[in-house]
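fyi for ur records
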Amino acid sequence: WLVAFIGAATMAASVAVEGDAVAEPVIMTVLGPVPPADVSAVSGPALCREWLVNDQKDLLQQATATSGAKQEDGTVGLVELASVMRSRRWPLASLHNLHLSHEDVLAELAGPLKRRALGARSCLVVASTPRAFWNPVSSSDYSSRLRALAREVGDTLVLVVGTAPAPGQLAGEEGLAAEVSRLVSDLRVGFEGSADTEGGEKVRPGFIGELQLWDPLTGPPAPHERLALLACAEAQHASGAALVLSGAVSEDVMAVLSEGGADLTRCAFFDVPPTSPVSAARLVDAGAFLGFCPPGGSADVAWQDYPGRRPWRTEEAFVDALSSGPSGRTLLGSGLRFRTDLSAFGGPGICYAPDLLAAVSAGVGLGPAIPPCSHDLRQAAVNFLQYAWKPPPPPEKIIHTIECHWCGARKPEGDHFSKFTFDYCSPKCLSNHRKAAYEPDKNGR
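which gave:
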């Protein structure tokens, strides 16, 4: 099986030359680099956008008094099978619905996904949670938690995580330069502080994003939103890694991407609505990838609007949009986000998108008017995620030396000889100093 957060164009020559060394393309996972051919051979589909282990508490909004989304005691209700429809109608009214814990995600990945992946060699899942919703918020803790997930699920899971600017912290040119350097360092070396206690390797992200774009209807972006996108564009230009964006695309977005030197053929735009100022067709003409996620639970029945809401409200509209995506540059995701998306809480689960497409291909469910999807979603994902990552040079070996008290020669620490408080390069110097009754050496020491 393969679940991946993926997007953007096949890398030009897929090979980068740095000095005399040639870097072969890889897909960077939380457990290390994987050859693209190994992922291409996976028999399952590619799911490219899953908000794993997230905390969206800042989006909490109280429901209206007549909604029934609150219990009589005034507390926000839990997401339970008996209240799934209530939670789907008011997705932001319950803190319980706005939090996917490590245990929730493990149950989803090790349950439905792993059972369906038994016939495949492995499964690739891309964790595209926007950084504002990381849980925990620390990059080292978040990435280490995802690595633990990959190990707990086992060899049927290949997990990829992204990196992005910390929300709301960018200010000025100095802050921009520092953020670009940090993003490039994350990709090349790994998240700071994420070293494995067993092997010493840091967790490395495999792409930049997900970055949610600002709403064009609200006017120009806030300064920190513009700088965050510019930092991602410059980091993408410097590293060659994939960049994942979501939402409506404005002319301001295109201007910032151009200013930062972003390669649009290495960018994936998810869930671009028909009302976007920059149309999906224009993005396709520029060589970008398009990503699609279905509405949760067969149809979007929410009475409450929220950021990042899918532009298609029904399965029919989703499949129709997906089928019209660009050949070789169309990406798929089930879009896990809320607890109501999980199988354990009455949701469709992480297998929802591929199951839906399989039903359409079999002529089941949506009727003959909806054409089956003919895209090779898995290969498109592989082409987007791979890039020519070059391992960082090994750290220089530091050799500590000790100066011989008698002759002044230097000896590697650990290979020297000691007597009282004196250090010697050889037994001969120690013996000569002893014969001199440990008098000061020829240098008067």
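The first helix runs from residue 36 to 40. thats all i got for now
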